[in-house]
């Protein structure tokens, strides 16, 4: 009886330890998971304007890593919270260009190639729908946020003029993007991400899902 009792106690303790380790691992993963709220907190708590040298480089690299860990929809939410534009305004042109390239979504180049194979009418429709999707996403996000966040208007949905849209359609996204300034690339990024999300989800076109682009 004593042997059976010790066996049951040992088994019970082992089970509790296993559950404890599993729960601890789950909590560690949950806490380390990047969310739009964590991105906003990092942006809000880090004063880029007062950082120089390696500390500034680390901060920019950390922000890029956090954005790359988000889905495209979550990246949109992070932009809606209004802090990313403030950081972009404080970056040098070189930093801005490096940051944009470091945060291109997966399959970006493949998406551009697929886009340029479409007829002009489809390209025009794709860009218009992407702009519409961004506006609708912001409206949904704003509706569900507390007043202090919902009132943030430092990063309104991008509004491309008809002339700018035609330029992207006629010249092609590859040429348009490659010849744009870092600031223009920053303004293009939300629309290009929305365009890729629409193509990946099949909402606009029957295109294959894109994998991580290895780069040029």
State the main characteristics:
216 residues; mainly alpha; 12 helices; 72% helix; 0% strand; disordered C terminus
Provide an overview of this structure.
This protein has 216 residues and is mainly α. It has one domain (36-201). The protein is built from 12 helices and no strands. Helix 2 (36-45) crosses helix 4 (72-80), helix 4 packs across helix 12 and helix 6 (93-102) packs parallel to helix 12. The chain starts with a helix and ends in a 15-residue tail after the last helix.
State the share of residues found in helices, binned by percent: over 70%
Mean pLDDT score? 76
| Beta fraction | under 5%
The largest pleated sheet is described as: none
Roughly how many Å is the radius of gyration? 23 Å
Number of helices, where a helix is a run of at least 4 consecutive DSSP H or I residues:
12
Low-confidence stretches: 23-31, 150-155, 205-216
Counted up, domains total: 1
Outline type = extended
- Assembly state of the chains shown: single chain
In short:
This protein has 216 residues and is an all-alpha fold. Helices cover 72% and strands 0% of the residues.
Produce the secondary structure layout.
Elements lengths: L1 H31 L3 H10 L7 H16 L3 H9 L3 H7 L2 H10 L5 H9 L3 H24 L3 H4 L11 H10 L1 H6 L3 H20 L15
Helix pairs in contact: 2-4, 4-12, 6-12, 8-10, 8-12
